[in-house]
Design goal:
With 463 residues, the chain is of the alpha/beta class. It contains 15 helices and 25 strands. Helix 10 crosses helix 15.
Length: 463
């Protein structure tokens, strides 16, 4: 006798609540079909549901996200780096206190006190016909930042070595909820034959029909709730084996919206407005912005970054400001709207020659016009890099492109072999945007403040 088991999942929503009513509208329809047919199903989230770039998540510190999962009947979830390192320690420690679903993350632990009661490593799901499914959750190991907040992340492979043999022995099927990214998922599939399915996220990859690697089914549904994921497993009760594994990612574009979810989001939006609509300061004049020019607000903003971190110099891209500040009262909601990025200040150590190369790349047309998505940046383009504590002279070549001709500090040439402390944002320590910054062996992150906290300071005390 064969039994079909259904998993419906979301990953990397990043608080794109505009898609949530359609997601839940579809899930409700699917749940009704499964109930009618007597089939077992589970709703799962793979992390980064919370993103503090959205006013609701910022104002309510992720609690609204948890309530949305509760109201929608989710059964299991894991955390992503946006829950893990953009909330401060206490906010994460209590984030899931009232969760009505199981939160699995086998490689997360508190460095300050006993782990929160909601934190589980694995769980066992049992179908109506008695099929046992062992589930484990893992999140990306950004320990350089997690440790600053008060958490530790164990290496994923070490954790899997510890748990997978036991999960395989005690269950018919093993499922990994992975907020590790596509490359880690592929490596895990090659190493662990006992894992039947990896439901993935973090790198925002999309597998419309799943992907099989060494017999393990990999699946992921992109980002921002534009797609939902579905996994269908067929278990043969007599032969005690999986006879079929299917995975699909489907666009939510034509799904019916769920009215109750729309109403709940409207209520959360009202609550967020009440929290954020509090004056922070008063401006006597408009403060203009420009992604490709150095404005007074950006100049003083970068000065604040250098002073805050006590660095030799600082650099920040003008694309972090999404609008101008109008004359009159400025609320925290205004600051959040104009600078929504969950990015932290940081300091790296660079040699003079590395610093000059970073400046050269940062002022290139290609870099300034890059439409960056991710790494904490929630704007449109990177924009012009603005500097503090050093003077950068440029010239225009025959092609009209700007080129760096001289970089000085306190009127003196940058010394190629001398080391300098350079303040910027953690975005540039990730990926390959500025390789010299990413490769720096010295990185000091400032937690839990975001750059908008420094912007608030700038507006209050420099204008």
């Amino acid at each position: 006798m064969e039994e079909k088991l259904f998993f419906y999942y979301t990953n990397d929503l990043h608080s794109h609540f505009e898609n949530w009513p359609a997601i839940i509208g579809h899930f409700e329809a699917e749940k009704a079909i499964r109930k009618k047919n007597g089939q077992s199903y589970w709703l799962v989230d793979i992390g980064d549901h919370v993103d503090l770039s959205h006013p609701i998540s910022e104002a309510l510190k992720g609690k609204a996200n948890v309530e949305l999962l509760n109201r929608s009947g989710f059964n299991v979830a894991t955390i992503g780096n946006n829950e893990g390192i953009t909330l401060d320690y206490d906010q994460l420690y209590h984030l899931y206190d009232h969760a009505e679903f199981q939160l699995l993350c086998a490689n997360l632990e508190s460095m300050k006190e006993p782990d929160p009661l909601w934190l589980q490593h694995t769980t066992q799901l049992i179908s109506d016909k008695g099929t046992k499914i062992g589930v484990i959750g893992l999140t990306a190991p950004f320990n350089a930042i997690y440790n600053l907040v008060g958490w530790n992340i164990s290496p994923p492979l070490e954790v899997l070595d510890r748990y997978i043999p036991k999960l395989a022995a005690e269950n018919d099927i093993v499922v990994l909820l992975s907020h590790l990214g596509i490359h880690d998922d592929e490596e895990i599939a090659k190493r662990y034959n006992d894992i039947d399915v990896i439901i993935g996220g973090h790198t925002h990859h999309l597998f419309r029909d799943g992907e099989e690697v060494s017999g393990t089914l990999l699946t992921a549904a992109g980002k921002h709730g534009k797609y939902i994921g579905e996994v269908i497993l067929t278990w043969d009760q007599n032969r005690k084996e999986l006879t079929k594994k299917e995975a699909y990612a489907t666009s939510v574009e034509n799904f019916p919206s769920h009215p109750g979810t729309e109403e709940l989001l409207a209520n959360f939006n009202q609550q967020a407005n009440e929290v954020l609509d509090k004056p922070v300061t008063h401006l006597n004049t408009n403060l203009e912005f420009g992604w490709f020019k150095e404005t007074p607000i950006m100049t003083k903003f970068v000065d604040t970054l250098r002073e805050w971190t006590d660095a030799d110099c600082a650099m920040l891209n003008a694309g972090v400001l999404l609008d101008r500040f109008d004359k009159g009262n400025v609320t925290y909601g205004d600051i959040h709207r104009i600078c929504p990025h969950p990015m932290n200040p940081c300091v790296v150590k660079l040699t003079g020659s590395e610093l000059i190369e970073v400046v050269r790349v940062a002022l290139s047309k290609q870099f300034m016009e890059l439409k960056l998505k991710g790494f904490g940046f929630r704007g449109e383009v990177i924009g012009r890099m603005v500097f503090s504590g050093m003077e950068v002279k440029t010239t225009k070549g025959p092609d009209g492109h700007e080129r760096v001709s001289e970089v000085t500090m306190d009127g003196k040439q940058i010394e190629p072999d001398k080391e300098y402390y350079v303040a910027t944002v953690d975005t540039f320590t990730l990926g390959r945007l500025l390789p010299e910054v990413a490769r720096s062996e010295y990185k000091k992150f400032y937690m839990p403040e975001f750059i908008r906290d420094l912007l608030t300071h700038t507006l209050k005390y420099k204008f």
